[in-house]
Amino acid sequence: MRLGIDVGGTFTDFVLLDDATGSIRTHKCLTTPRDPSEAMEQGMRALSADAPGYIERLEEVIHGTTLVINAVIERKGARTGLLTTRGFRDVLELGREFRYAAYDAFAQMPEPLVPRERRLELDERLRADGSVLVPLDAAQARAAARDMAALGVESLAVCLLNSFENPTHELAIKRLLAEELPGASVSISYEVLPQIREYERTSTTVTNAYVKPLTERYLRRLGERLEAIGLQGRLFIMLSSGGVTSAETAAEFPVRIIESGPTAAVIAGQYYSRWFHTPEMLCFDMGGTTAKSCLIQHGSAAVVPTFEVGRVQRFQKGSGLTIQVPVVDLLEIGAGGGSIARVSRFETLQVGPDSAGAEPGPICYGLGGTEPTVTDADLLLGYLDPEYFLGGAMKLDTAAARRGIEAGVAKPLGVSLTDAAWGIHDLVNENMAAAAKTHIAERGGNPGLVTVAAFGGAGPAHAYGLARKLGAARLMVPPNAGVGSALGFFTAPRAIDLVRSHKVPLATADFAELEGLFRALETEGERALRKAGAEAPVSFTRSIDLRFIGQGSETSLSIPEGDFAALDPQELRRRFDTEYSRLYGRTYAESPAEFVNFRVRASLPVKLLTLPRLTATAQPSKALKGERMAYSAIQRGFIAFPVYDRYRLAPGEMAGPAIIEERESTVIVGEGAHVRVDAFGFLWITPPDKSAHDTAI
User: What's the whole-model pTM score?
Assistant: First the structure.
């Protein structure tokens, strides 16, 4: 048995998979922000009611967490120091010397995680090829370590110039710090990110150091909790790149799990895209705090090497801290069930980006929330059943939600309560659709051709409205969509991504030497997987980054398996020119190119997840639970919506309007839409203005 646990900003989701039978059990509970492991223990114990003795039978627990990114955003990491080469003390503030708002005289840049007084310089220097220009002064380094101790530093980052070509000085400092500061955490750039570009490498290493003590404590406490309740299997953590790694690796390199939680739904979307042969799929995951979307093309989501966290202007590129680790190319906006609705200073309706979260949560939760949210609006519109939220485990207070929206939105704007509630629901859909259109266009997609796949507790309630605004071809809602992220853990490979920078011209490169570099990376990757208990054969995927000599950005190329030394340099150059032309419309065949980065993904075979078919327990005659008055965007008023129990739906077809309920989420279908339930229980919804023909799958 395997258990997936996704800790979100509002809810913690659980999916228990029995590999032998294919059966799936789910659970959802409120997150405990002060100690997320507390909610995890509560949820695991609650699952025992449906599956007695399952904890002892667990082979593995796979966990996705927002702990790392939240620590950076909220500045709750360790007291961190930085040791660097003389002259590079201020690289965190200099960055790329890029102003994200060129004409805003008051534009702010994010505060560095390490203030200037805790950034000390050392007299040492390596040339670009890694040869030593100025040897490391060990006495000076020891004095700097003692200065850091006097400053009360808990964690240290070490980032020296050109250390990716020669780690000798960084490794010497690491040994020295173990002697001088035995209680401090240490992160050296050669182990965290042995890659070119000083600002990105320094920022990433500092971020790793900043969150490392917190992550180590959290994972240690979580391990102790799990062991105390009887877990005998292993704990794994979701990587930002879509793979899964051991808790030990995550504790050593927490920067690699900075986008751990949001990635899982995308991995599930990839799996469904391949299973159903859907070439263009927009994975849409809306939880209690945020909404994430990702375009999946031909069964794969893009993985980008760099992203930003803790933006001063949340949606303004360049206003955050740059982190250079592989991460699934997600679009995230502040639109969740807990997003707060209020009247802006321009006397217009504003929804988000701030959220009520799990504490105190929306008003209707009855946990002390006082500000109206999207969930409160959905309840007043009739989309949620106050007696069946979380399958009836949590009752919603409709009267309190009504008072909150009336006082916070309706009266200040001078509109009716219904118009205020619909305005909140529709505005959040509009915000998400606008962002998704940009995301799709930037990746060469067409909104009119995509299939929207809905995940998250709030996703199915808003996905139909989002799909209509996008003009999407159809909408797909998988079973257990409300805990879809946790289900995605089971389709993720156990893998680790490694990179090494080594600049050398393509024309004069020693391909045999480069094969040795690849083999070293593969050995390191296999060692990490074996350390995590892997016994299956490890496979490797190689890629390279090339650029024209003198250029400031690289082009990535995958390369075939086999000996790199056997590759034809001219054929490699032709492939580079072809890819460059595809991306930018032309190439420069007369200009020499150079290798910059060498990448390896080491991975284990994926344990296949077989989708269970609907069984004879489905009872179509009993699927209809009754009717509920809910708001119609077409009629501009409340009409009777048939309400269905999703667990009793059998393969077949129906027409909207409809409300389809399961324990963790509710699907809203508008008038005239065509709904098909397939043999696996997936809902395929075609809007009325699209072709009624729905290709059989």
Answer: 0.83
